[in-house]
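Usage

Read records sequentially. Each one opens with the input sequence:
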Amino acid sequence: MLVSGLLRVNKRNRSDAYVFCEDFNADIYICGSRDRNRALEGDHVAIKLIEVDQVMLEKHEKEEAKLARNNGHPVVRKPDEEDEKEIIFGGEEDVDLVTPKFCGVVVAILDRAQKQVFSGTLGLTRPSNKRKGGDDQQHQQQRDSSVPRIIWFKPTDKRVPLIAIPVEQAPPGFIENSESFENKLFLGSIKRWPITSLHPFGVLESELGVVEDTRVQLRAILADNNVNSLPYNESMLRSIPTNMLSAEMIEREIASKERRDMRTTRCITIVDDHGGFLENALSITPVPNTNTFEVGIHVSDITAFISPESVLDKEARSRGVDVYHTIFEKVPLWPEFLKEEYTNLVQGKDRFTFSIIWTMNGSGEVMDTWFGKTVINSDAIMTLRDLQNIIDDPDNGQDDLSTDILSLYSISRSLHKSRYERALFIKPPQLDIRFKNDHYPSSITTKVHLKSECILDELQILANTQVAQKISSHFPDHALLRSQSPPNERKLRELTQYLDSLGYTIHPETPSSLQKSIDTIQNPEARAVIVTLVMKCMSQEKYFCTGAFDINRYHHYANNAPLYTHFCCPTKRYADAIVHRQLEAAIKSETMFFMEPEIVQKTAQHCNVKTRAAENANEQTQHMFSSYYLANNSGTSTNRIQDAIVVGVQENAFDVIVPGLGLERRIHTINLPLKSDTYSLSENVLHLIWVQGEATVDAGVETAISTDDDEDDDYDDSIMDTYSVRDDIDSQEDDGVLVDIGDSSDEQIKRLSIKSSSTTALDEMKKNRRRSTSIRAIQGEDAWITQKECTFPNECRQLIRPFDFVKVVVTADPIRSPPLIRVLAANPFVMKQ
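and closes with the structure output:
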């Protein structure tokens, strides 16, 4: 049986890959590079199903063969960066623990991203070579000769294999002095990959520049996520009609009943704090002689200016989504000229909008809904902070705009309260990065959510829900909707049991019961940790066409809505533009939509890919800027001490979250200066016996750049580059006090010293108590007190327990690709030698 889907490669182990099959609503496991058959991350592939037992048996036999080749000793792979980024309940299912439902092999690559390029560095020799023979013998001979025939392109994304590049394309001076190119980034592409070759062959597209330039790294991130950052060409811009907003055209639209004239209705454009999108305006008007209001959300009618299937429309479809990098750089979905001149809902200008107007009472109960095209003239532009200022000081503003904001806020709170009885509201923490004028970050904080956000959020969700109902009822086989499957049942069940063992109870039976149980946790640190872990269990949202899915898969879990879509952001999401066209066709009672269901589904899948690529680009950008910020924008590797919260403990490792920096890391004991470590399963406690006086950053830690567990048997070889994180630091004895983030790393590590003291039997009993709802660190006790409680200076022993605070060393090295941010436990027994 043949099925198809998009392939994704395990970041931690390139030997494992998966294809999500819509027909089965499940993953198909692809074991090893041979079965992946040269397919790359994101390829649309055809899969032949094979017996699961057969695959798992062959996998076991491979592992046994590796064991035999290693004289019976297990092949121990040192944890790499991707291992460190994956914490408890995160990442792909471990097939050794959870047997996959389906297994398969790739038999064809049906589709691959056009003009795909990768960022990376150049090497004169192949970074890793464990086999001798075949192509490898040829490659070895080339290395031994004075003039090699190929050079090696090492992609930044370790899921992409090494690419062989003709030596003729080597930059001038590279053959003679390849070391001088180590910190330069290039773009490369794959041109062919013969079935008999270990590696693909490609070309060098261009040189990006030196890695220490943040703009170079931004361009590399865009390339790795297949984001087209080229500006729209002149021919596309010329296709935009320039007379649509003329007085004559506006009057014609109104006279023909194509649009409702709402220019005299007071409207307020709401602009988000980042990105500056001016695509949503709100209005509220009391209905005379009733206790009701007409509440409107007015969305930029960008599709009025773009003909379906036009060159400009096809380019926007290809881009899929607006990619917002920083205040300095973004890749727009639509031309800036179109937005600035015609569609942004600027103050005092007539603009075309697609509106939803509800008749509702003060409690947010909807009596009637009107969909239609309108023309508005915005009275003001306000940020979320502007709205919050009015909410915080309602007596200060007595004008009509303030009255409107307060009325909208009251109704939105009622809508929120109603949704609270059925929906899930948790979101991952977001970083707020502020910049200097030189592309370098000046501050990083966790974004503080404002109460005013609910005004736009609640009305957008209501609009999205009702538009979904409208288009799916009119076009039952064509509607483009957005769904979210229930959480991973196994992960959520295990998380519930795990938290219960620590004294915390969550109720995952429904979205609302889960939300309410999280809200009962009073301490913000504990709540933030639990939210992070719950998010690890959630399924990804995705667009789909109703004609391609069974109706029982339409449901959106977090919103607990049977039907949901995206309508309110056509400026930054192409999916919303499709929904606009479907809604227009529905209110005109058209019997057919111009796109067939198969094309709508293909477009939906493309939008899913582009949405995730934009999310990845955003995460990588934040990671890059965080590394510069932690390195004090110096471009050199630095260390600083932070407080972290332990979220999970296991054999040879424990997981932490660093509040305020958005860092989640697994700390492996092999990377710490320890004499020994012992994990107690019954107590869920890790005992660390430290080397007295040796700071963590003195431990000579090495990091494997990438690995492939399959390397001895399959096509891909790992790229085993290592480097040492070492910093010679003189340690001095000092009192055990809190570390000031402003101290130099030397001073911080010196101050981690803990003086010897006698430990009583009572202290020992207290330190080994079972964790419960009285967890001291999480109940707001000083972090340093908790850490001292878990240390035994006479033994140089430290206890690592879930939900305790620990001191960690955060190491940042921005001058590499990708930038490095490591988190290691700080040795609390650093004393004067």
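Summary fields computed downstream for this record:
- DSSP finds 20 helices and 34 strands in the chain.
- The first strand starts at residue 2 and ends at 9.
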